[in-house]
């Protein structure tokens, strides 16, 4: 018996299928299934029974998973001690490309002033689902991500941000801008195939708007330059926009808002993670 097998069994119990558990842990499904079967053979019991397209815990499986959670929490607590003492202290925080500037540019510098001996490692994830997987697999202590998240994760909202439209000064639009006016509007967009672009495309689908992509670029520092050059407008978050002098910044109606939160697994947090969580909630307030 090993920790990997226990993590796989707990993940399968949480997700209801071995395929979903494997996806959440970023492992191949055959490898996960094989590890679970090996544990069943070693214990001499059946942990899961088939139910429709998924699996459910047997009576014995429920007892094993209950003890496995306790064991994994104990391991996490031991790791927290080693991370939380002296110069080896490290805090691992997962986030998406869109929210990384919020984490590294605003939150971490302020936190580091009070915790100079702490090393913070940013775990970069390509989207909200990958963030959740990093938390479940124990590759991160906390995550900064969009809410809501699945119920197997604990969420602490700390900020709500507004999407605004930044346009060249000569563009005639109402203020605030009705969402329907985004249809056919020339926009500066992140590069296709990136997490930022997927996020923006999903938002436009939700509001039923089909703009014209004028420029595709992942260089955030160049976006406002393209707007100043009259190439198109930009949809972005109000609190991440700087130096809009000479440009038109308008709210949308109805407003588009996004709730940001700190997320972690339902298990005891390392001391550093608890400190950062309290700090971030205070900073957001």
UniProtKB/TrEMBL annotation:
CDD domains assigned: PBP2_LTTR_substrate
PROSITE patterns recorded: HTH_LYSR (PS50931)
UniProt keyword annotations, A-Z: DNA-binding, Transcription, Transcription regulation
Protein's name in the database: LysR family transcriptional regulator
Domain HTH lysR-type: 1-58
Gene3D superfamilies given in the database record: 3.40.190.290, Winged helix-like DNA-binding domain superfamily/Winged helix DNA-binding domain
PANTHER family registered for this protein in UniProt: LYSR FAMILY TRANSCRIPTIONAL REGULATOR, TRANSCRIPTIONAL DUAL REGULATOR HCAR-RELATED
Source species taxonomy: Bacteria, Bacillati, Actinomycetota, Actinomycetes, Streptosporangiales
Matching InterPro entries: LysR_HTH_N, LysR_subst-bd, WH-like_DNA-bd_sf, WH_DNA-bd_sf
Protein family according to the UniProt entry: Belongs to the LysR transcriptional regulatory family.
């Amino acid at each position: 018996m090993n920790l990997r097998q226990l993590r796989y069994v707990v993940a399968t119990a949480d997700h209801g299928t071995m395929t979903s558990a494997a996806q959440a842990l970023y492992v191949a499904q055959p490898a996960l299934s094989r590890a679970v079967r090996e544990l069943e053979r070693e214990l001499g019991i059946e942990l899961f029974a088939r139910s429709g397209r998924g699996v459910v815990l047997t009576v014995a499986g429920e007892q094993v998973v209950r003890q496995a959670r306790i064991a994994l929490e104990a391991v996490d607590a031991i790791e927290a001690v080693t991370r939380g003492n002296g110069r080896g202290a490290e805090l691992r925080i997962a986030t998406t490309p869109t929210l990384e500037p919020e984490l590294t540019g605003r939150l971490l510098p302020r936190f580091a002033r009070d915790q100079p001996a702490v090393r913070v490692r940013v775990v970069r994830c390509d989207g909200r689902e990958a963030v959740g997987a990093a938390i479940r697999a124990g590759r991160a202590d906390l995550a900064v991500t969009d809410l809501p998240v699945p119920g197997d994760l604990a969420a602490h909202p700390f900020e709500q941000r507004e999407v605004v439209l930044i346009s060249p000064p000569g563009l005639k639009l109402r203020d605030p801008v009705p969402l329907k006016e985004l249809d056919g509007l020339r926009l500066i967009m992140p590069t296709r195939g990136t997490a930022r672009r997927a996020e923006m495309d999903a938002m436009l689908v939700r509001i039923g708007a089909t703009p014209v992509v004028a420029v595709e670029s992942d260089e955030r520092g160049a976006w406002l330059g393209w707007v100043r050059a009259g190439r198109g407008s930009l949809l972005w978050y109000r609190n991440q926009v700087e130096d809009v002098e000479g440009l038109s910044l308008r709210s949308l109606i109805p407003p588009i808002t996004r709730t940001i939160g700190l997320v972690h697994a339902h298990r005891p947090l390392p001391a550093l993670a608890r400190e950062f969580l309290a700090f971030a909630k205070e900073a957001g307030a």
